[in-house]
## 1
Amino acid sequence: MVTLWKKLTRLLDYPELELSNNLAENSMRPVALGRKNWIHIGSPQAGPKVAAILSVVESCRRLQVPVREYVSTILPGLGNLTIRCVPDLTPAAWVARHS
């Protein structure tokens, strides 16, 4: 803890910083529950796919991105992209490009 003391006391220098991460954890709770509950639907491959979709939807909601607009922009041509393009397709990257 001594080595992290400066980072730990940063809160005292900047009172606008939150001491708790409850807001972030509470916003992700439906996604975490969905991952657990949806593992058993349809087939073994269905659960992880639904969990990934829910993660994207929750990220859009957190960033106040219209999900339908985001998906309709990202999906066309998705099959023609390489795996290296995936970081550019996240909701956060989409917001950065459309701001």
## 2
Amino acid sequence: MVTSAVCRASAGAVEHLAIAVVPNLARYLGEVKRGDLWIYGAVGNGAKPMWETDLSGGLALVFGAEGKGLRPLVRRTCDEVVSIPMEGSVESLNVSVAAALLLYEARRQRG
């Protein structure tokens, strides 16, 4: 839910993004899938690295809860999963940092 706290924390950026609040994410993703929109789930491991994934077209990025990741049904609904390769002993990133990196990579690929 987009609360006043979310708006304050985003420093106004939430006003410039399309945000969908839905009761069942897996069902919603199935409804919006189409040929020109790919659904990418962000996962910590076992996926193609973000720079080897074509993020230049229509896309929806799906992020799981911190610590828990994507729910199994949501992950299966995604067209593909993508990861941010990590080095050293760091296993994962804060969800906001992961979102920023994937959005930056999508923008970089678009030129």
